[in-house]
Amino acid sequence: MTRQQARSGSPHEDSTGFSRGVRAGSTVAIAGTAPVWPDGTVDPDPAVQARRCWEIVLGALAELGGAPEHAIRTRQYVTDAAYADAVSAVHREVFGEIRPASTMVVVAGLLDPRWKVEMELDAILPEDAG
After folding, report:
1. Are 52 and 37 in contact (CB under 8 A)?
2. Please, which residues have CB within 8 angstroms of residue 55's CB and are 6 or more apart in sequence?
3. Helical packing angle, 84-95 and 46-63, nearest 10°
4. Structure confidence by residue, pLDDT tens digits, 93-113
5. Read out DSSP for the chain?
6. Tens digits of per-residue pLDDT, 36-87?
7. Cα 68 to chain centroid, rounded
8. Facing residues of 22 across strands?
9. Could you tell me the CA-to-CA distances from 94 to 18, 34, 110, 127 in Å, in that order?
10. What is the pTM of this model?
11. Count of CB atoms situated within 10 Å of the CB of 33
12. Which domains does the chain have, with CATH numbers?
């Protein structure tokens, strides 16, 4: 089975020793992804943060040969239940007709206190993808 890795440029990839995404055969796992812009800034709005997370996640998925319709599971971590509606609306924008299995969990905090959300994704690609 072949194994591919995707990187997003996060400094944590090297310091922690992880990949943004890994493809093993037709299975793809995208790691917990935070809402950080290339210049290190983080928008305070939870919906903007969710969109940024999904942008990074889907970029890694594409790098590994996948597309949004290959998603089978998403996980959304939020630091306040009050963000649920805004974050859910963004999930619906991205995955509305795809409808992967999804979980949203309220957590006490994330690695950076500016982060209000973090996202993960699992996908299964067709045999001929990428």
Report:
1. yes
2. none
3. 30
4. 999 999 999 999 999 999 999
5. --EEEE----HHHHHHT--SEEEETTEEEEEEE----TTS---S-HHHHHHHHHHHHHHHHHHTT--GGGEEEEEEEES-GGGHHHHHHHHHHHHTTT--EEEEEE-S--SSTT--EEEEEEEE--TT--
6. 999 999 999 999 999 999 999 999 999 999 999 999 999 999 999 999 999 9
7. 11
8. 5, 29
9. 25, 17, 23, 24
10. 0.92
11. 24
12. 3-124 (3.30.1330.40)
Pick from 10, 7, 6, 5: which is nearest to 112 by CA? 10
d(CA 94, CA 76): 13
User: Which two tokens mark 90?
Assistant: 């963004």
* Tokens at 37, concatenated: 């812009």
Distance CA 101, CA 114 (A): 27
Q: The tokens 């963004």 sit on which residue? A: 90
Pick from 58, 57, 69: nearest CA to 96 = 69
